[in-house]
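LAB NOTEBOOK - FOLDING QUEUE
OPERATOR: T.R.
BATCH SIZE: 2
PURPOSE: Compare the predicted structure-token outputs for two unrelated chains run back to back under identical settings.
PRIORITY: normal
REVIEWER: second-year student, initials M.K.

ITEM 1
FIELD SEQUENCE / FIELD STRUCTURE:
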Amino acid sequence: MSILAGSKGRGYDDSYQEFDSPLMRQLRTEAYGKDIGQHSWVTAQDLEQDASRLKLSRASRLLDLGCGPAGPLAFVVGLAGCRASGVDASANAIAAGRARAATLGPGEVITFQEADLNEPLPFPSASFDVVMSLDVILHLPDRGAVFREVARVLVPGGRFLFTDAGVITGSISDEEMRLRAVHGPNHFVPPGFNERMLELAGFRLLESADRTLSLLQNARGRLAARLAHRAELEKIEGSANFERQQRYLETVIGLSDRGAVSRMMYLAESHTA
């Protein structure tokens, strides 16, 4: 993620202070099945498939927008052996990302920049062959502007892959909307909106896929893992914040289970000359 959480509960930046503690690693293992340092709805299996979609090679230059502590980014770099950069608004996430990147092989290099994705990207035009952004676009108010910036920093024919866990595909109540957005700004969109914004930004959509099932499995896994470690988590989060997070996950599960909100993957190619 790249947007700071609102005033309720622990802030986005604070959430990464203990990201790689033994407890957090255990929670991720129980929730996801495989701990790659993920911080949203990402799975290792999805990333393995996406790396092939992105046609990464050792010569590729990869950018991750809203990289968080860089677990998924480091995983992809480990698969492809490419050069990469990560951008995030959180200083704590960047620090965790640098620590994770230091464990990679000598030829696998990741650089990081702290930046606000609501502003122009801090890179020259045509700096990257591939851009990815996992479960971040939902939190940005002007995704059209973001897509235009992505098109600018990509080489012509470069690939852009992102996931959006906020595509409205059914009815949702105001209370569910409030609970779903407890971690900060959320900008839900109807089907077709992302496709239209990509086209206006100079992209050609290559593929889209519904990944709500993996989100549902992850949310259930996280809910159960947190409940199993309730006492330990309440010491860190406090009882009120623990309950708030459980309600959030319950809401995500309910909305996903009945098809009201979907998580979609989009793969696009820049044809901006």
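ITEM 2
FIELD SEQUENCE / FIELD STRUCTURE:
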Amino acid sequence: MKKNASFSIKARLKSFSYAFKGFKHLVINEPNFKIHLVAAVLVFSAGFYFQIQVIEWALLGICIGAVLSAEAFNTALELLCDEISPEQNPTIGKIKDMSAFAVLIVSLVALAIGCLLFIPYLSDAFSQNFS
């Protein structure tokens, strides 16, 4: 393991470039990440449209961050598993399935929170437009 004794702003900035490379890979190559990203944009747009409260923005931010992060971790784990064992392997298959399920759990919780948050706004908008 390489030991880095001194702090370097240049090195810290370089580390951000690696993170953005990872983001670029996810956006270009991972359909599920694209779906989650589009959903995030739609949810943020709805938040602006309905002028949601600060705490609601915080909840949305946490949910969106969790879902996108879970998808990124899932993708990284799948790539690592494929590198370690390119052939079919029952244990690797279970690992990948559990990782995908983790994304599903986070996504369903985010969906539930989104429904709890937006249904009252949608209900009010519907009742104002059709009453």
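REVIEWER COMMENT (ITEM 2): The chain has one domain: 12-129.
FOLLOW-UP: none requested
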